Amino acid sequence: MIDKEASAALHGQVTPAVPVAQPPDVRHRAALREFEENRYPALQKSYRRNRYFHNYLIRVVCRYVVPGASVLDVGCGNGRMLAATAPAQGVGIDINSIAIAEARQRFAALVFHETAVEDIGTLNLPRFDYIIVCGVLQQLYDLHSALAALRPLCHRRTRLILCTYSRLWQPALRFAEIIGRKQAVPDESWLPGDEVANVLSHSDFSVIRQIPCVPLPLWIPLLGNAINRWIAPLPALRNLGLCTLTVAGPETRSSAAPSPDSVSIVVPVRNEAGNIEPLLRRLPRLARKQEVIFVEGHSTDDTWGVVQRTVAEYRGEFLLTALRQNGQGKGDAVRAGFAVATGDILLILDGDLSVPPEELPRFVQLIHSNRCEFANGSRLVYPMDKQAMRFLNILANKCFGYLFTFLLGQRLRDTLCGTKALHRDDYLRIAANRGYFGDFDPFGDFDLLFGAARLNLKILDVPVHYKQRAYGRTNISRFRHGLLLLRMCLFAARKLTFI
Fold it and tell me: N or C, fewer C-beta in 10 Å, the chain?
């Protein structure tokens, strides 16, 4: 049963154990600390009894943390989840002194502090890449003060990973407590996903994705893992999960500068000899320093000759570079261009001019103002030229859009638009983690989108107009490349969704 004095104090009632003069939030934390320390052996016994659920939850959380990062675990307990993330710098905090002592003994390479999240500002901690708050949010007296205390520990790329329990499971959990399957705990808040998003928005955080998970928390041989991995993520069953994982990022203020200092525009060109001069003439000024990198590969027309002559004869305000790729495909061309790019913001513009160069400023503005971290062009919003895209291509693009929305947990309408933008330092992180998926994308679009999802970057669709090409013909094979893209989606599903 629940300790009566602790339960009463958690509801703001006066008890002999907690001084009346203390504020209600302090009384709440004191009662919670007393409860967890007094019941620590029983809580650990319950933990071991339900080890399958806890181990699976750790596995899910770790999938959204890149190893080698700096990680803060709020409510770290004995440190198992923090250690499982394989951090380069790991810090755990908890109000339970017994759990902290055990964590320090078990994981000497990590740092642990006995403190409440509301008092974390007294520790003089650095900023972290990831902040994990698992099973703690519902115990807090005031959500806003806790999130406000965490906000100074965030930089632009910090990802907050919250784990909350579904109200749908409240009767089952209460029953588990009655029969002794689960340790009874003081009353907690029940926070559905939309309420978590609402509270985060009050504290200058924005939700990037929400992932319901673990619909079967009990170990059942063969069946348990199969349901939790393959059945739980399906759209019709997602809301049956015991837990909801929310990944959020800090909302940073818009930059005061009207434009960035530097941008690099990578233009893959294959059989685009007639588009080089018009593209350069139409390209708008996007930054004080602007470089345009033409990457040619295996053209059968005079594209490489035109690029070389254009770069040699150019006397305009942009810095031009001519590259010839060694590998095959647009993806290789983009990676070659990005490897030599020096701009703070990187853009891709297809050399066929099907997306007007005049529409690039909105991509730069969205990235520069920090409204998103990955701007993805969407050709399926505005009416397009009649011959710009065939019907089967439109249908395939819509299907891939729905599939990616499901796989990435972020809304995407068009995955194959060649126009994209992101910060250079974010691209370098994507490239550094490319081994997670492998070098399997000849187009480059999926490589960037999957990489951005792996790093939990905030992706935003940007509507663009799609025009019929004026020169040359498409380099895409609808059926052969479509099957390849589908195989890549199935591969990524195992890495991103079916965990």
Answer: N
Residue 491: CA atoms inside 13 Å, Cβ hemisphere, count?
Answer: 15
Distance CA 436, CA 438 (A): 6
Q: pLDDT tens digits for 345-387?
A: 999 999 999 899 999 999 999 999 988 999 999 888 777 666 5
Q: Which long-range contacts (CB under 8 A, 24 or more apart) does 34-40 make?
A: 34/3, 34/5, 34/6, 35/2, 35/3, 35/6, 35/185, 35/186, 36/95, 36/96, 36/99, 37/96, 37/97, 37/98, 38/3, 38/6, 39/3, 39/183, 40/96, 40/98, 40/99
Tokens matching residue 115: 């403190």
CA–CA dist 148, 152 (Å, integer)? 8
> What's the CA gap between 151 and 475, in Å, rounded?
47
Beta bridge partners of 417: none
Q: Is 153 left (phi over 0), alpha (psi -120 to 50) or beta?
A: alpha
Burial 449-487, CB ≥16 within 10 A → b, else e: bbbbbbbbbbbbbbbbbbbebeebeebeeeeebbebbee
Question: Does the reported pTM lie above 0.85?
Answer: no
User: Widest CA span of the chain, in angstroms?
Assistant: 88
Q: Are 24 and 11 in contact (CB under 8 A)?
A: no
* Cβ–Cβ < 8 Å for 304, 323: no
Question: Which of helix, strand or coil describes residue 463?
Answer: strand
Indicate the class that CATH gives domain 262-496: alpha beta
For residues 480 and 396, give the distance between their C-alpha atoms in angstroms, rounded to a whole number. Answer: 13
Integer CA distances (angstroms), 131 to 36, 74, 76, in order: 22, 7, 11
Is domain 39-250 classified as CATH 3.40.50.150?
yes
Mean pLDDT of 240-269: 87
Confidence label for 479 from pLDDT (cuts 50, 70 and 90): low
Length of the chain: 499
In the chain, where the domains are located: 39-250, 262-496
- Which residues, 6+ apart, have CB-to-CB distance to 139 below 8 Å? 32, 75, 186, 188, 189
Cβ partners under 8 Å of residue 271, min gap 6: 299, 300, 301, 303, 472, 473, 475
CA–CA gap between residue 274 and residue 352 (Å, rounded): 9
